[in-house]
Amino acid sequence: MHELVTAWQRDWRIAQLREELGAALAVTVVGVPQGVAYAVVAGLPPIMGLFAGALPAIVASAFRSSRHVVTGPTNALSLLVGTTVAVQANDPVAAATTLAVMIGLIQVAAGGLRLGSIVDYVSAAVVTGYVTGAGILIAVGQLPALTGIPRVSGDLITQLWGWVSGLSGTHLPSLALGLLTVAALLLARQRLGKSGAAILAVVGSGVLVWALGARASDIALVGDLAATESGLPSLTWPDFSLVDDLWPVAFAGVLLSLVESTSVARSIASKTGQRLSLQLEFIGTGLANLVAGLGSGYPVSGSLARSTLNVQSGARTRFSGMLSGALMLVVLLGLGPLVDRLPMPALAGLIVVIAADLVDFSRIRRLLRATFADRLAFLGTLLGTFALPLDQAIAVGVGINLVLFLRQSQWIVVRELRVNEDGLLQEVEPDAVVPGLRRCPAIRILHLEGPLFFGAAGALDDALTEAMADPAVRVVVVRLKRASGLDFTTAEVFAQAHRRMVASDRRLMLVGLRPKMIETLARSGVAEALGDAVYPTQPGWFVAMREALAAAVASLPPHHPEGIECPVATVTDPDG
Predict the structure, then answer these.
(1) How far, in Å, CA of 41 to CA of 45, rounded?
(2) What is the pairing mode between strands 413-419 and 301-302?
(3) Alpha carbon distance 54, 327 (integer Å)
């Protein structure tokens, strides 16, 4: 918690009320219609979307490490909740609040156990793909409201085709108001900043529609979607009879909420330079979900659109997120009728501009010029957001990262050590022909680098088999000083190689083993089989290798024609 106290002290020193309040106002202006709309997507009463954006936002901003992430209802979690409450038709509200409490408890436990490393498998390429895809989805999702056309649910292609098919029914006053809002927003940014421009554009459009008469032009208002009621959140208790049915969805929600929140936090931190604590991110998000479930809300996460707007509006500390939650409580207390008068096309125009800001073309170009793995993870996640629900798209990106990680982890570097003209051991490719380098035909020295875990067993076995394939080789010396992670599977590979060598009256020697490697060999019984052929790493330069080479030469049969001439290095190597 020391990190949190330090973060609070820093934020208290640099906070500027005007900047934080301005950002909070902009976030609240966008958060109200989003909360109402997301609650409808989740199959819940609209007021629950506002409850989810009030107290949870305050708690999350107070306890998480990110200074800019705004917590509340999101598109992906709302869709997940919608599929859950659909099967809990008897009491969807109880199902949603219970699910939020379950998700919160798991997330707090994960933070307390310092399991933040699970999100380390979400690379910058996956985050960029998710942010880019989500930004495009958010923009496309606002096109119907922008043009006054009924929205078609489904993936990106379905939504676009439904919108294009309905263009003939475009409501021109709605389109004109939406485009006017976009233009005013972009122009006002030059003078008022992003926060002031957002407030001016949305509130100004509301005043304009009120003055002209929305009913006369049939422009949709927030109140047409669902009337915003007045009142603070009430205390609710989870329905424990639903726990057994909700466990699978709860774990899916935990993963989605954590990955989404962390992705948003990392995306913003990459631009602001803030250092994050994944433990605090887990705990803050978990506490927010607990408060949401106990306070008549439903599962929450870091909001991509609102967090981006928060940064763009000049927020510098966590107080902007806390103030946005407090302002949402003010809305709940009595500003519902005013919120109901906001025009949907104007809000859609604002969200489209925010979504466009999420697509960082410069970052994407740099990423596509990077490695094949980065490109694959980015494109896989991006295309997944278009074809799959967002939670599954994130899973696709994480899956690609895991596959590539495991594939790369299987790679161990195998080099052969030969003696050069100065009597020093030099690394070369096993099959390389290098003038000036000598090796004893009877002794093969292999140098391994990389993780020796079960995924590398095949490559290790191939390297040993290739070395033993030469009938002239009587001793194979394997240097493990720069290898790591020896496990039972790779220990068994050495044991099998040892048995094959002994069967043909030859020897296998392991050199430069660390204490943990020796312990693994002992527990697996391999050390006993190898006997004195195991040479632990020792203080000094190349001590263990010199001893092993001397023993290897001495072990050659007396009549061996090259035994006496086998070169033994007098090497001095800082790695031992």
Answers:
(1) 10
(2) unpaired
(3) 8
CA distance 553 to 550: 5
Euclidean distance between CA atoms 412 and 189, whole angstroms: 54
Is residue 483 a contact partner of residue 450, using CB atoms and an 8 Å limit? yes
Q: In the Cβ-directed half-sphere of 76, how many Cα atoms lie within 13 Å?
A: 31
What whole-number distance in Å separates Cα of residue 526 and Cα of residue 140? 61
Separation between Cα atoms, residue 201 and residue 61, nearest integer Å: 27
Backbone angles phi, psi at 539, to 5 degrees: -60, 145
From the list 335, 269, 332, 289, the residue with the least C-alpha distance to 72 is: 289
- pLDDT at residue 115 greater than cutoff 80: no
Reduced to 3 states (helix: H, G, I; strand: E, B; else coil), residue 449 is strand
Q: How far is CA 318 from CA 2, 69, 104, 576, in A?
A: 16, 8, 20, 50
Residue 31: closest CA among 89, 3, 82, 73 = 73
pLDDT (tens digit, 9 = 90+) per residue, 538-551? 876 678 888 888 88
* Three-class SS state of 315: coil
Q: How far apart are the first and last CA of the chain?
A: 42
Looking at residue 33, its amino acid is P
pLDDT in tens, 155-171: 788 888 888 888 888 88
Q: Using the 8-state DSSP alphabet, how is residue 241 labeled?
A: G
Name the band, by pLDDT with cuts 50, 70 and 90, for residue 58.
very high
Q: What is the pLDDT of residues 436-452, one digit of tens each?
A: 788 888 889 999 988 88
- Using an 8 Å Cβ cutoff, are 219 and 209 in contact? yes
What residue type is 169 in one-letter code? G
Cα(261)–Cα(304) distance, integer angstroms: 8
Contact, 96 vs 44, CB < 8 A?
A: yes
CA distances from 343 to 47, 336, 395 (A): 18, 14, 36
| Other C-beta atoms lying within 10 Å of the C-beta of residue 363 | 17
Render 334-369 in DSSP notation, one character per residue.
H-HHHHHTSBHHHHHHHHHHHHHHH--HHHHHHHHT
For residue 243, pLDDT over 70 is answered with yes
Contact 267, 27 (CB under 8 A): no
Residue 365 has pLDDT above 80, yes or no: yes
Q: Does the predicted model carry a pTM greater than 0.85?
A: no
- CA gap 129, 359 in Å, rounded: 9
d(CA 507, CA 525): 18
Question: Which residue pairs, CB below 8 angstroms and at least 24 apart, start in 438-442?
Answer: 438/567, 439/567, 440/553, 440/562, 440/565, 440/566, 440/567, 441/470, 441/472, 441/473, 441/562, 442/472, 442/473, 442/474, 442/475, 442/556, 442/560, 442/562, 442/563, 442/566
Q: In this structure, what token pair is assigned to residue 411? A: 């790679």
Q: Which residues pair with 534 in a beta bridge?
A: 510
Q: Are 297 and 290 in contact (CB under 8 A)?
A: no
